[in-house]
């Protein structure tokens, strides 16, 4: 018996979410590959440099917003159903959030791809941050709003299951998978307030022409109210995998239940009031509030450092169960031949590297050196592009058999895939970081200038260019391997009652040691809202006090 | 609650690391004058003509008995004015304050390879002060996506010796 046999309805919902996620991953990944060749001037024959920005928008939206959100929805459906031992409460409601998100995604994608049709009025080359006054077609903003509303309903669905479960189990502690899901969604509710105000309150009326002018700083600030927490919305499900599943894949058990809960609580509290750290270089926000954001940003290192300890300790415990000895020799005893384990472990190593460049980003006067340079995408291709994406791909090798009742096919290809991703990303991102130090900008089709040359501090511009192009190519190959293994296993994997070992053992320090206050969702949600009010009430008031749409700029076509 | 003694030690170490980072930034702020852009002034992006941005360029001012320079720059789709058609010329070893804004969309103003790097946001004036220590040329890059020809938007700063600085190009 595995998941699909016990919970066939939830399995169907999770699979539907995964299908959408993997289609978005395939298209968005292909765009990324085209960009890697275009930017480096290795091959510019696919599209012209104006169309590059349409592809870049597609890459960002399809991967950062669509692939992540749908994968997370599938993962959480699996975890909530399994840990509370209940199918979704009302399937009509469950399918309605899935279809709402899907309709929204299709609308946004049509608006973006319209930019590739000559003379099309349907365009959205505004990148995934869509800063006004560059204006996209209203369908783009409405589509994104539907995706977010759908995700809110998905969260409500999981809280619904939790309430029903609680009524039947008044004295039980919240199971850890459900706990991580609910706290991630609480954080999502806090941060999407900013996005909802921006998109529904400002951008949709403006793109429909109901108002003409817009103040650029206000929507930008509301975007980043949402825009850093969304990073944790991607990352926390990866943490969920590292805490709940990776110890088992290593052959051991989670180190500490209470530290796991504390980490998720800190993320709920600190994910949103850090948004100004994306606006260190903005005029119009005082240095004091930027400093507050920096302090909270650096504090949010704490839960990640605790995670590093807990996850490594869990892995070490697993390796010692498998006969590992010595201070470091145990590492060799980890299951380096298991695709799911290898993907998660390599993702974790890349996340540590991404964490270091993130500390530079966070330190506001050091950040100025690399703000909006290609260093920044170098950083987030390690975090969201590897820590999150590679973890999601790796855990698919373990989840898919549970959701389909079929064994994984092509295990060798599945094993090569995470190593290839790691190699490709090492090449690409180290070069991006170094090019950023020389001042090479991000988000540009042709980073060559007629009047001056960049002066790299380490290495040469030519070597960096080739590392980016070759790294991007290896990543594309890795992505094709992933999709090949998934499609083949899904359609033709051997059917089995027990296609994978899906047992998750209890933590070493279990829930009996965990203080009850950690499960008090009202308390932590209230505190999170308070911290957001402290960070945002005054600056937002300053921006709207002179009129919500003033000082107003006129819309410009994208 | 049970926290393993190694983990307690690790958490303490984490706090020390975080404190170290914050102290580093504050030290840069206070002792090395490494500041970030703050709140300066708002401006009507549709009426820059009536402001100093209407006649952009390098101005001479006297502050505390010293001769200093102010540079007003408009970032437009897809040029710096001044900066693109003709370079921004400033003397070395002199305080220069930049004022930057945009009449159309968001742009970036990044002097490549340096920490002179700011957003240019319609409605907001970015202000920063620097001293160029050496005689040389710098490239200016727009590092925020601003439309289909974003990649051609570049400019130049030319730092000349104080003695060779030609004041006939200053604006009033």
TrEMBL record, chain A:
<dbReference type="InterPro" id="IPR036927">
    <property type="entry name" value="Cyt_c_oxase-like_su1_sf"/>
</dbReference>
<feature type="transmembrane region" description="Helical">
    <location>
        <begin position="224"/>
        <end position="246"/>
    </location>
</feature>
<keyword id="KW-0812">Transmembrane</keyword>
<feature type="transmembrane region" description="Helical">
    <location>
        <begin position="336"/>
        <end position="360"/>
    </location>
</feature>
<dbReference type="GO" id="GO:0020037">
    <property type="term" value="F:heme binding"/>
</dbReference>
<feature type="transmembrane region" description="Helical">
    <location>
        <begin position="16"/>
        <end position="38"/>
    </location>
</feature>
<feature type="transmembrane region" description="Helical">
    <location>
        <begin position="468"/>
        <end position="492"/>
    </location>
</feature>
<feature type="transmembrane region" description="Helical">
    <location>
        <begin position="412"/>
        <end position="432"/>
    </location>
</feature>
<dbReference type="GO" id="GO:0009060">
    <property type="term" value="P:aerobic respiration"/>
</dbReference>
<dbReference type="Pfam" id="PF00115">
    <property type="entry name" value="COX1"/>
</dbReference>
<protein>
    <submittedName>
        <fullName>Cytochrome C oxidase subunit I</fullName>
    </submittedName>
</protein>
<feature type="transmembrane region" description="Helical">
    <location>
        <begin position="58"/>
        <end position="81"/>
    </location>
</feature>
<dbReference type="GO" id="GO:0016020">
    <property type="term" value="C:membrane"/>
</dbReference>
<keyword id="KW-1133">Transmembrane helix</keyword>
<keyword id="KW-0249">Electron transport</keyword>
<feature type="transmembrane region" description="Helical">
    <location>
        <begin position="523"/>
        <end position="541"/>
    </location>
</feature>
<dbReference type="InterPro" id="IPR033943">
    <property type="entry name" value="Ba3-like_Oxidase_I"/>
</dbReference>
<keyword id="KW-0679">Respiratory chain</keyword>
<keyword id="KW-0813">Transport</keyword>
<feature type="transmembrane region" description="Helical">
    <location>
        <begin position="291"/>
        <end position="315"/>
    </location>
</feature>
<feature type="domain" description="Cytochrome oxidase subunit I profile">
    <location>
        <begin position="18"/>
        <end position="518"/>
    </location>
</feature>
<feature type="transmembrane region" description="Helical">
    <location>
        <begin position="93"/>
        <end position="118"/>
    </location>
</feature>
TrEMBL record, chain B:
<dbReference type="Pfam" id="PF00116">
    <property type="entry name" value="COX2"/>
</dbReference>
<keyword id="KW-0479">Metal-binding</keyword>
<keyword id="KW-0472">Membrane</keyword>
<dbReference type="GO" id="GO:0016020">
    <property type="term" value="C:membrane"/>
</dbReference>
<keyword id="KW-0186">Copper</keyword>
<feature type="transmembrane region" description="Helical">
    <location>
        <begin position="9"/>
        <end position="30"/>
    </location>
</feature>
<dbReference type="InterPro" id="IPR001505">
    <property type="entry name" value="Copper_CuA"/>
</dbReference>
<keyword id="KW-1133">Transmembrane helix</keyword>
<dbReference type="GO" id="GO:0004129">
    <property type="term" value="F:cytochrome-c oxidase activity"/>
</dbReference>
<dbReference type="GO" id="GO:0005507">
    <property type="term" value="F:copper ion binding"/>
</dbReference>
<dbReference type="GO" id="GO:0030313">
    <property type="term" value="C:cell envelope"/>
</dbReference>
<protein>
    <submittedName>
        <fullName>Cytochrome C oxidase subunit II</fullName>
    </submittedName>
</protein>
<dbReference type="InterPro" id="IPR051403">
    <property type="entry name" value="NosZ/Cyto_c_oxidase_sub2"/>
</dbReference>
<dbReference type="InterPro" id="IPR008972">
    <property type="entry name" value="Cupredoxin"/>
</dbReference>
<dbReference type="InterPro" id="IPR002429">
    <property type="entry name" value="CcO_II-like_C"/>
</dbReference>
<keyword id="KW-0812">Transmembrane</keyword>
<feature type="domain" description="Cytochrome oxidase subunit II copper A binding">
    <location>
        <begin position="68"/>
        <end position="171"/>
    </location>
</feature>
